[in-house]
């Protein structure tokens, strides 16, 4: 059996698709003569036509393409379904990273029943509601942030807004209101929006938060996800 066959079998067992993190756990690499099996798995799915990419870090078997896309509520050439999937996909990844790093994780009430792949976000987060970490006006504002990580004292450690196509100014206005907290503020978006982000945040009105808000590309989040997963596996 070839290494490619091992990856195909693992992906079939997972429903015809998998994230790299799932493949690292599922693929039988016991007979692989390599010190870097994770790199080999990534190379296999990127090189062979038996696999196709759904999103960064998420791959599927070509022969099950229609079934997988239907299962994930993704419709070819449908911008609305792609936007919804992309937004929830990165919400789920950020929640998983936060959980791995042992933060308490939160998503807005309106997003709890949305799915990361086939799992509802409410089944992934560790907080059912927003902790009362500040007064009501700011709490109402924070409730709409896409993902928040809280530390053991239930104070915010990181605020994350995913901006696939929507106006970046809306997220920046939330961060402006929350600027007095010592937390990470990140806009998560496609690399193609980086220049747009810098153009907007260079406006004088954002002077108070310019040094605190980061732009992070989708690819950088996927790389962090992979890194945190490897660290977790080493600790187990």
Strand order of the largest sheet: 4-7-8-9-10
Number of distinct beta strands: 10
How much of the sequence is in beta strands?
15-25%
Q: Treating each run of at least 4 consecutive H or I residues as one helix, how many helices?
A: 9
Largest sheet report: 5 strands, mixed
Tell me the distance between the termini. 28 Å
Structural class determined from secondary elements = alpha+beta
Q: Report the average pLDDT across residues.
A: 92
Computed over alpha carbons, the radius of gyration is 19 Å
The outline comes out as elongated
**pLDDT < 50 runs, ≥5 residues:** none
Order of helices and strands: HEHHEEHHEEEHEEHEHEH
The level of helicity is 40-55%
Structure keywords:
single chain; 236 residues; alpha+beta; three-stranded antiparallel sheet; 9 helices
Explained architecture:
With 236 residues, the protein is α+β, with helices and mostly antiparallel strands. Helix content is 43%, strand content 17%. The protein has nine helices and ten strands. A five-stranded mixed sheet has the order 4-7-8-9-10, sandwiched between helices. Strand 8, helix 7 (168-177) and strand 9 form a beta-alpha-beta unit. It is elongated, with a radius of gyration of 19 Å.
């Amino acid at each position: 059996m070839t290494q490619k066959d091992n990856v195909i079998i693992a992906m079939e067992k997972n429903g015809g698709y998998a994230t790299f993190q799932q493949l690292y756990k599922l693929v039988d690499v016991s007979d692989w003569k390599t010190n870097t099996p994770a790199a080999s798995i990534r190379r296999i799915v990127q090189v062979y036509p038996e696999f196709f990419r759904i999103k960064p870090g998420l791959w599927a078997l070509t022969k099950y393409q229609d079934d997988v896309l239907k299962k994930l509520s993704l419709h070819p050439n449908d911008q609305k379904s792609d936007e919804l999937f992309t937004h929830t996909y990165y919400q789920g990844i950020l929640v998983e990273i936060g959980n791995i790093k042992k933060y308490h994780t939160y998503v807005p009430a309106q997003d709890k029943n949305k799915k990361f792949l086939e799992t509802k976000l409410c089944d992934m987060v560790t907080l059912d509601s927003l902790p009362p970490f500040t007064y009501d006006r700011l709490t109402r504002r924070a409730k709409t942030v896409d993902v928040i990580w809280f530390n053991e004292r239930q104070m915010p450690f990181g605020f994350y807004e995913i901006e696939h196509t929507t106006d970046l100014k809306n997220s920046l206005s939330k961060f402006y209101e929350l600027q007095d907290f010592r937390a990470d503020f990140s806009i998560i978006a496609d690399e193609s929006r980086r220049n747009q982000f810098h153009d907007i945040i260079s406006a004088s009105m954002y002077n108070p938060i310019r040094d605190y808000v980061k732009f992070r590309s989708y690819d950088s989040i996927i790389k962090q996800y992979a890194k945190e997963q490897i660290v977790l596996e080493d600790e187990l």
